Amino acid sequence: MINEFLFTQKNDFSNLSFLDNKSFVLNEKNSIENFYLDYFNSQQLNNPFEFVNIITNSITPLGLVKKQKLSTSINEESNIQRIDFQIEEKKEITENEILSIIQADDYEEGRISMIEKYMENDFSKSEIDFIKHITQKIALENLSNTKIINGILRLITSRSFDQMYPEGQYIGLALLQNKNITLREKGIQIFEYWKSKKGIKILKSLDCDKPWLQSYVNTIIEYLDLYGTE
């Protein structure tokens, strides 16, 4: 019966009666061992400890298969570690790139900054998500650095409220709690520049200790209520 089970080079599955009325796709993700055990059960073979290897058309002991599986598992773990290393390396490169651009610029009203020009690139959604993650890390590590926060503000407001969600909003909220009144004002400006009505709920939750700052918040709320985008 084993000989009857040997495949041709074309791996013709048409003669396997036990596959009738079954939907089965054999690939690397399916269990080849279970595939053959099903066949053994259907054919009532006397030796269930050996099975045919589709790739080599030879009989392979199950013990060897277990070793092969262990080797595959080790290779997969090695691949995962390599990918993790590449991701961490990419994070470091991107963080240094963004910081370099921000620190090399002076932020003047009415002038497009270098970091805004950087964000004009045709980034994919996954690339934007990556940049958001890195930007949040930079912001949280530099909450007292006015120049870097100015650059972060330009970066996250160069894209829409929705595109920068939720990392951009977390940065804004962190700034709104800053003891530096100038940086707290920057946190309010983020929601002003986004021009989204979705920011109204956050701004209404604020209770500023400085009357002039609370007045600024109320003005932004009124503006967004009237002219903000949905």
Describe what you observe in this structure.
- Mean pLDDT is 75; it is low at 1-33 and 43-62.
- This protein starts with a helix and ends with a helix.
- Strand 1 and strand 2 form a beta hairpin.
- It has ten helices and two strands, in the order H-H-E-E-H-H-H-H-H-H-H-H.
- It has helices at residues 2-5, 32-43, 62-103, 114-118, 125-141, 146-156, 167-176, 181-194, 200-204, 211-227, and strands spanning 50-53, 58-61.
- Strands 1-2 form a two-stranded antiparallel ribbon.
- With 230 residues, it is mainly α.
Write the layout of secondary structure elements.
Layout: H1 2-5, H2 32-43, E1 50-53, E2 58-61, H3 62-103, H4 114-118, H5 125-141, H6 146-156, H7 167-176, H8 181-194, H9 200-204, H10 211-227
Antiparallel strand pairs: 1-2
Helix pairs in contact: 3-5, 5-6, 5-7, 6-8, 7-8, 8-10
What's this model, at a glance?
The protein has helices spanning 2-5, 32-43, 62-103, 114-118, 125-141, 146-156, 167-176, 181-194, 200-204, 211-227; strands spanning 50-53, 58-61.
